[in-house]
Amino acid sequence: MKPYYNPMTESFLTISAAPAFALRHKNKGQIMASLDSPNSPPNPSFAIRETAAHKFLRSISTREAPSFSHFPYSSPPRRSTNSNIHTSPIFSSPPHQGSCAPVDNLVTTSESSNYTYRCLSSVLKRDGQILSMAMSNSLIYSGSSTNIIRLWKLPEFSECGHLKTKARMVVALQVSHDRVYAAYADGKIRIWRRTWDGAFKHIRLATIPSSGGYVRSLIARKDKTIKHLGPITSLAINLSDDIIYSASLDRTVKVWRISDLKCIETIQAHLEPVNAVVVADDGILYTASDDASIRVWRRNFCSGEWPHSLTVTLPSKHSPVRTLTLTSDNGVLYGGCTDGYIHYWLKGWFPGQLQYGGALQGHTHAIMCMANVSKYVISGSADSTSRVWVRDSDGQHTCLAVLVGHRGPIRCVTAFLGRLEDDNEDGCTICTGSLDGVLKLWRVTRTNKESGSLSQNASDYFDL
């Protein structure tokens, strides 16, 4: 292996010709047996590692740009229908049979023909890349590569405040009741309490780990209380157990107790960077990594100092898993991969028991974010599009719409039913944030069959 200096990213790249996942698993045949489905063909990839002074090693697929911070803000080339045209493997995906491809914003399946969608609003604040998003009641919080978290009031989608710190790059956001949790690239989590006094006010509560706790842990040499050694990638909250989970590029997941904001456990979760973490209502923890797997963890309160134990590992072919989402009933787990596939697993009779259900095909680049509300699943991709999927009563998925308008990879997404005033399951409202620095608000609505085909209202669409 030889380091190669990339002038575009100002960093060194080391390219390894061996699949990263295959090198660490000798019993690959046994592990991959549960995924031998015709809906999800194998997709081997090479590992590209970036070793800059301020970043940790990270294995990513060839279907993804080496550095999101320098991702070009132009629409990536679409997959051509002409078989004589050859496209670079970095910007292409294997042929997806039955994939939902947009043609002039039309989706022609029988189910999707009853839906219409449009862009309600598009906002550019010049904060750089939009990296994170969270929603609570009538507020949307958006974090960017700057040190500002902006607040947006719904349904008018107008800015109503901001939170500011000295740290930059808000990489993950979570809102729970009256608390706002924001993770930054410096490996720390800032916490605010939200109050109402004629208008929303936010009071800064704490930063974890605190400076004093960090120094004491160094003196005591207790590694479990030291902050993450790499940027945090994801947060998850389990209020019933009084816990915050933080995943990081340092390959660990840390467990923080909400009551006293202390780290009570460090989980050595994966052999590669951990990209996403979600927790179910029953306390089951799911982690996704660049090692092309999802791991399921169970918390055992009788085990003493290290209560989380690994129960099962779910392989995702050869592609790193970038993002996770759970349905509201915890019945379906979705994992978005860097090859453009969304794999999903169905919950079994016992906690932590999962059965592979299949894969959703359509995106041509890495899946970077996902959200779900009721029967709808929304995915955002590095191909600059979002796709809206609906899950019917039989567990089948249909692509309802392809939301086109961003000029950069879509990094975060959130959604809610209806128009905020109602909980109409025949439609949802979606907010997407992209590395082009733009926030967009979308509305997907079910229409009567007599009303015609899918359309987009150009008068409500503002393209930046």
TrEMBL record:
Biased composition regions of type Polar residues, renumbered to the chain: 81-96
UniProt-annotated stretches for the region Disordered: 68-104
Family annotation (SMART domains): WD40
Pfam families registered for this protein in UniProt: WD40
This protein's UniProt keywords: WD repeat
Keyword match Cell membrane: no
Recorded superkingdom: Eukaryota
Keyword GTP-binding in record: no
Bias-annotated ranges (Low complexity): 68-80
WD repeats: 225-266, 267-297, 360-389
PANTHER family linked: AND WD40 DOMAIN PROTEIN, PUTATIVE-RELATED, F-BOX AND WD40 DOMAIN PROTEIN
Name of protein: Transducin/WD40 repeat-like superfamily protein
UniProt organism field: Populus tomentosa
Species lineage: Eukaryota, Viridiplantae, Streptophyta, Embryophyta, Tracheophyta
